[in-house]
Specification:
Elements lengths: L14 H7 L2 H4 L3 H18 L4 H19 L12 H13 L12 H36 L5 E6 L2 E7 H26 L1 E2 L15 H7 L4 E2 L3 H6 L2 H27 L7 E2 L18 H24 L13 H24 L2 E2 L1 H8 L6 H10 L4 H18 L8 H8 L9 H4 L4 H4 L2 H6 L9 H17 L6 H4 L3
Parallel strand pairs: 3-4
Antiparallel strand pairs: 1-2, 5-6
Helix pairs in contact: 3-4, 3-8, 4-5, 6-7, 6-12, 6-20, 7-10, 7-20, 10-11, 10-12, 11-12, 14-15
Length: 482
Amino acid sequence: MSKLWGGRFTAGTDKKVDDFNSSISFDKRLYFHDIIGSIAHAEMLGKQGVIPADAAKQICAALQEILADIHEGKVEFRIDQEDIHMNVETLLTAKIGAVGKMLHTGRSRNDQVALDIRMYLKDEIAEICNMLSDLVKTVINIAENNLDTIMPGYTHLQRAQPVTLAHHMMAYCQMFRRDTERFIACYNRANILPLGSGALAGTTYPLDREYVAERLGFDGVTENSLDGVSDRDFAIEFISAASILMMHLSRFSEELVLWSSHEFGFVEMSDTYSTGSSIMPQKKNPDVAELVRGKTGRVYGDLMGLLTVMKGLPLAYNKDMQEDKEGVFDAIDTVKMCLPVFTGMLETCKFRKDNMYKASSKGFTNATDFADYIVKNGIPFRQAHAITGKLVITCISMDKGIDDLSLDEIREICKSELEDGQDPMEIFKDDLFDAITVEACVEGRSLIGGPAPATEKKAIEKASKWLSEIKIPQAYAEWFEF
């Protein structure tokens, strides 16, 4: 069968070239968006009188039938027709003859594929945002149930200061909120219609681009035809947003892997989200978390691949750009695979609150609050820092914590660091131990953004309000009917 573009050629392409040049093996997943984009284009051609109105109706009806046939698995795509666009057009002309050849009037595969990938991404972003919404809801629920669950906070993976599990969860809530907003911003930038750009210089036909944009739910049309066909910023931006999301999931996964170890003992994974060892019968492995962590590198690779493809391309369209799809598709598939399983894993985690509390009471997590306490009693902070440091060293040598000492022992240890006129009795008062309990350390940090339960409760309320008000775009299948 001759190529739809074969008029200029006197010989057919080599089969190896057909195989090498073809993208139908992966771009066939664009069939729905390709067809509804073609229906809108045909409607506009008929409305504008570019083709007869009856021909436009016949084309639209036939495209509807082809769409139904594909849905029902009745269509086998052909490699020799290269891509989804030419496969659909070939099916159309086989169904209605010469009238089908009118469909491609006023457009090129260059602006057609730019339209398809934007529409496809819009749908996938909507689905990913819904998945993120479920994850944010899960994180908020865990936080609500753990406002008073005290655990150590870490810097450099060393115990630093006590926080709450709610505070830790809400840190990830903030990340996933930003991820959602990034995807929505990407959606908005992708939501501009490129159709009408032609191959690179538009067309002489009186197209109504605004009509097609409205029909397909776009906010507007591209303002430069060269940019319209050669822009893949929206695809790069999407994989970038996906990479940042995967980085957040990976960090969370790393913590869950650590927390589920015997050394930490902060969390127990559900059997339904764990696996075992083929040789060690005692093992319960956090494979879901580890796989999410591992798949992050895959999405990073998709981003670097597309950036590399695009970095040296002159305007306008180049065949290199065919390589945009597999990276985008892989990033989409990976994110959509990871989000539900990660959410399910997190929902079924059992947090071991006693172990968290015990860990927060060790490792001098109250040392900063000890220093702050004596600052409030008149000691400059730098001096207070030095005093506390000496106290910690002494406690380590005694294998004790600060609150294992008596008040007299603390005064004796610290007095050598005091200056003339600084009275140990006035600096280390009877209420010192009340001020450095892990509960006091947490509750005292009631500034906005702090871990105090009352503060965290407000943060949860704010996040819940955001979740109820965030406008996640609708997918085409939810609202678009022809």
